[in-house]
Write a structure and sequence with these properties.
By secondary structure, this protein is α+β, with helices and mostly antiparallel strands. The protein has 2 helices and 4 strands. The chain has one domain: Alpha-Beta Plaits. It is 31% helix and 36% strand. Helix 1 packs antiparallel against helix 2. The longest helix has 23 residues.
Length: 99
């Protein structure tokens, strides 16, 4: 399982534009199980976004090579509405905790 995660501060009032820019212009990445956007309850311009993907590292790297141009264009569109990015990365799930 791969998790793509970003914590960012949006420009004031840019949520709707950010959300529209976030969606890929082509298809969603393979293996996408679900994606979440969560806004800080004390500061709605602080947003975390993360997606859960049923893929391994090799599959991620293959997809990234194939989709690099479109992903870079998507990141450029998103950046127009972002004040700063605190954390961003691709993570491999190594442990699961269940209730």
């Amino acid at each position: 399982m791969i998790v793509m995660f970003t914590a960012r501060r949006l420009k004031p009032g840019a949520w709707e534009q950010f959300r529209a820019a976030w969606d890929p212009t082509e298809s969603m990445p393979p293996g996408l199980q679900r994606a979440y956007h969560a806004r800080n309850i004390r500061d709605e311009d602080e947003v975390i976004s993360f997606g859960l993907f049923d893929m391994d590292r090799d599959a991620y790297h293959r997809w990234r090579e194939e989709a690099d141009t479109s992903e870079l264009a998507r990141v450029d569109r998103i950046s127009a509405f972002v004040e700063n990015e605190h954390v961003s990365g691709v993570y491999e799930v190594v442990d699961t905790v269940e209730p």
